[in-house]
Amino acid sequence: MAKAGYHHGNLRQALVTASLDLIEKNGPQGFTLSEAAKAAGVTPAAVYRHFQGREDLLAEVARQGFEIFGDLMEHAWNGGAPSVLAGFEATGRAYLAFARRFPAHYMAMFESGLSLSAWPDLSQTARRAQTPLLQAAEALAAAIPEHRRPPPAMFAAHIQALSHGIVELHTRNPANPRSPFAAEDLLESGIGIYLRGLGVIAPDA
Length: 205
Known about the structure:
The chain is about 70% helix and about 0% strand. It is mostly helical.
């Protein structure tokens, strides 16, 4: 990859691509700016034309991840079609699919310790990625009597926490004994229990 990104005038993206490879191998904290530069085929000094430092580069990796994640979640929600419940369940499956398909982006987004507020573009993209799940939660919560209705943001946070926990324990943790249940089955049953508890779906549904 000798200076491919540099010669093609896209050094910034070449560094992101190199970082993704390093993150997937070593984790979001397991590489240096010099290693990213070497993998992209340029000198470390060239990196500073585009990034202020290692965390700035990592933030761009995370931002691009949230863009992909947001697109997947929006496609899964599909405006609540064919039904609000189906769209809601699809967002959970999209979460699992993203973690499997884009592990390096996932690590940069959720395991790097970045403060989203430090990068306005990253923060804005992350908020946009949460919109489909919030819309789904709001639509489902509308069926709950107002005095028992959780705030949509809390509703969405519960499902995100469930999805994230399944990813971390059963998809991304090699030390964890393999579950006899597929991650999708765990998520579907967990969401079902949660929605039955809120009265969104009937106990025998």
